[in-house]
Every structure is written in structure tokens, then in C-alpha cells.
Amino acid sequence: MKKNGFTLPELLIAMAIIAVVSALLAPTIHGFMPNKEKVKFFKAYNALLRVNDDLLHNPSIYASDGTCEGLACVAAPDDPDYSSYSGMDKYINLLAKFLETDKDYGKLSNGGNFVTADNIAWTVSMQNDYTTNITIKVTQRASDCVFSANCTKPNQFQLKVDKDGNVSGTDKMSQAFLANPKNMNSKITDSVTLNQGFKTDLDYAKSL
Question: Which of 39, 62, 107, 155 is 20 to 30 A from 121, alpha carbon to alpha carbon?
């Protein structure tokens, strides 16, 4: 007699096999998934480099008069579209404008913040030596944090911009991300770093 369907024991065995296979594959699949914080960190980082390059190569916005260089030239731009921006407030307003060309944030003050369309929050503070500290919050959470012993999955990262437009990480996870820029799932593939015994960005950040 031809049997239709499956018996209960057969179904239970099949389900057990599927559960075992899923458990074995889950770590591998997870290892290939991108770290969304790292992806957005690099989106913000690369946008920051691009904007700095655009600003510094536009003589109508940042022009050296022989007494200043790069972003330290805080006099009002010749360009009438940006001539209201000067002093320590100049960079934050130009950064916001060049990141979001179609959005009007109004006049921002040094040390202030704005949120771009990709939901990244930027806090920008130029220092007296014309370096700029920037905190980026890449995802929204109930509790925000920068990498520390109590925060191993940060959503905030700290960057520094020098007057030449160069960008560096000042918190340990930013530094770990920048040391391993090609792998968005945070598994370290760089041979030098691997030889030092680090397998993930978290391993490397903890060592700094």
C-alpha cells in the first residue's frame, strides 16, 4: 500500500536534523553579515574626507592669505553663498551644508550638532589650535556609548580633523575600524594584524 505523507517520528527526525544543521551554520552565516555600525562609520568617514577635500580645494571658501593654512583660515569666504560663515563657526556650517546640500540647518554654532538624511548625528567642535573634534552617532539607541570596557558594541565614534583635512580616530573602536577598512563584518583579514593574534575589530580595540 502506498504511504501518503510522513509519520510523526519522520517529521521529528527531519526537524532535529534541520535544527542541528542550522546551529552549525549560524556562526558561519553571522560571520559574513556586515557590521551595520562599521558600515555607517565608514559612510560618515568617507563623506568627511570628501567634504574636506572639496572645501580645501575651493579657493573661494578656504584661501590662504599667508597668515593661515587650510581649515585654520576662518575668515568669511569670498563665495557669497557662504559669506555668512566665519570664525570658529565656519567649519561646522560648511560641513553641514556640503554633507546635505538640499537641507537648511540654519546657522549652527561651533560645538553644535545636526543630523543628516541617513540618520547619522554629527557633533562638531573646533578647538583653539584649529583641529576639530567630531562625534558621530551612527545608529539610534536607548543608551548611546563610545567604546569602553562597558561598551563593546558602540554606536558613537570620535574623530579628529586637522587643519589639512586629514581625519583620524580618537576612540579605540574607530582606530580598530580604520586599521581594518576592507572587511565590513569586522573579521580581521589583514595578515599583519592577524599575525599579532587579533581576529576581530573588538580584539584589536581591546588591545589599544
Answer: 62
Q: What's the full length of the chain, in residues? A: 208
Write down the residue that cell numbers 540654519 correspond to: 106
Write the pLDDT tens digit of every residue in 70-91.
999 999 999 999 999 999 999 9
- pTM of the entire predicted model: 0.82
In sequence order, the 6+-apart residues with CB closer than 8 A to the CB of 37 are 138, 139, 153, 154, 155
Beta bridge partner(s), residue 168: 160
Return all residues near 109 (Cβ < 8 A) that are at least 6 apart. 89, 92
User: Whole-angstrom Cα distance, residue 163 to residue 102?
Assistant: 26
Tell me how far apart the alpha carbons of residues 135 and 107 are, in angstroms, rounded to a whole number. Answer: 19
Reported as type and span, the H/E element at residue 15 is helix 8-32
- The three-state DSSP-derived secondary structure of 172-197 is HHHHHHHHCCCCCCCECCCHHHHHCC
Q: How far apart are CA 95 and CA 115, in angstroms?
A: 12
Q: Please report the DSSP string for 73-125 in residue order.
A: --SPPSSTTTTT--GGGHHHHHHHHHHSTT----PPPTT-EEE-TTS-EEEEE
Tell me: the pLDDT tens digits for 93-119? 999 999 987 788 889 999 999 999 999
